[in-house]
């Protein structure tokens, strides 16, 4: 998507949807956005596995939703888990031993509304007992905004559970990790210094841009207020900030 001579790409930590699903969402908003211009953390997980030549005979256990499964399928990786494990329960009785697939070579953890103890134990067994098994997090967001009434526990809470049981730090592929930034810079043949990261969250969007060596623009139409930005407790300062994206349109009109 090109606007005023600038290419726009969309980067999100939400792993519940695939790029194709996001494309359909943009269509409902009247925007024509190519899948190649959408970088969701679900895609980032699959892209990372491709970048390290993850063996195709190994499997990926997913603690997360449909978006991760679809992107893994598109990349040609075998997977198990996901929403289908949401109803599974463990009957804790004397002598109970939980089996797990020894061919799992990576556990991918993202936001999961169907999170349960079965998934925690299964992912833990894979990471602790399968030699070389990777622990990959789509993001570590503390909170998310499922409704406009309050903040809800984010993907970081699911990641934290697995971190707590395995004592192993995850490899994070979503914001503010630089993996997606490096990926898109290489894909479009540009340097990160040519990119301006626009977002409404300081600890993900703005930090993502800063970690990647980009200019950053904070919009105050989302989760960050002026008070939060100017708070003495906030150490993340964007290069620029404005009230909302539409301010660009008024700026253009003023220069005509």
What would you note in describing this structure?
The chain is of the alpha/beta class and 256 residues long. Helix content is 34%, strand content 18%. The protein is built from 9 helices and 14 strands. It has helices at residues 19-28, 41-51, 66-74, 117-129, 155-166, 179-188, 202-211, 226-229, 247-255, and strands spanning 2-3, 6-7, 10-12, 38-40, 59-63, 78-81, 104-109, 134-137, 143-144, 152-153, 171-172, 196-199, 215-219, 240-242. The strands form 5 sheets. A 5-stranded parallel β-sheet has the order 6-5-7-8-11, with helices on both faces. The protein has a 3-stranded parallel β-sheet with strand order 12-13-14, with helices on one face. Strand 5 (59-63), helix 3 and strand 6 (78-81) form a beta-alpha-beta unit. Helix 2 runs parallel beside helix 3 (66-74).
In brief:
With 256 residues, the protein is an alpha/beta fold. It has 9 helices and 14 strands.
- The count of helical stretches stands at 9
Query: What distance lies between the first and last C-alpha atoms, to the nearest angstrom?
Result: 23 Å
Mean pLDDT: 93
* Beta content: 15-25%
Sequence stretches where pLDDT stays below 50 over 5 or more residues? none
The H-and-E topology, N to C, reads as EEEHEHEHEEHEEEHEHEHEHEH
Percent helix: 25-40%
| Number of E-state strands | 14
Structural class estimated from helices and strands:
alpha/beta
Radius of gyration: 20 Å
Shape: globular
């Amino acid at each position: 998507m090109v606007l005023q001579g600038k290419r726009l790409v969309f980067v999100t930590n939400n792993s519940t949807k695939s790029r194709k699903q996001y494309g359909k969402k943009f269509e409902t908003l009247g925007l024509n956005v190519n899948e190649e211009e959408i970088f969701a953390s679900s895609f980032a997980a699959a892209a990372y596995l491709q970048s390290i030549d993850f063996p195709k005979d190994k499997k990926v256990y997913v603690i997360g939703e449909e978006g991760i499964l679809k992107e893994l399928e598109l990349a040609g990786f075998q997977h198990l888990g996901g929403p289908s494990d949401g109803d599974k329960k463990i009957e804790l009785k004397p002598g109970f031993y939980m089996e797990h697939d020894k061919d799992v070579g990576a556990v991918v953890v993202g936001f999961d509304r169907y999170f349960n103890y079965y998934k925690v134990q299964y992912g833990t067994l894979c990471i602790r007992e399968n030699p070389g098994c990777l622990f990959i997090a789509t993001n570590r967001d503390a909170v998310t905004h499922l409704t406009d009434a309050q903040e809800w526990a984010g993907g970081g809470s699911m990641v934290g559970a697995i971190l707590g049981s395995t004592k192993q730090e995850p490899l994070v592929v979503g914001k503010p990790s630089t993996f997606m930034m490096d990926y898109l810079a290489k894909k479009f043949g540009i340097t990160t210094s040519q990119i301006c990261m626009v977002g409404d969250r300081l600890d993900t969007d703005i930090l993502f841009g800063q970690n990647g060596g980009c200019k950053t623009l904070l919009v105050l139409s989302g989760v960050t207020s002026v008070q939060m930005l100017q708070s003495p407790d906030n150490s993340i300062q964007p290069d620029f900030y404005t009230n909302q994206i539409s301010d660009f349109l008024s700026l253009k009109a003023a220069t005509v």
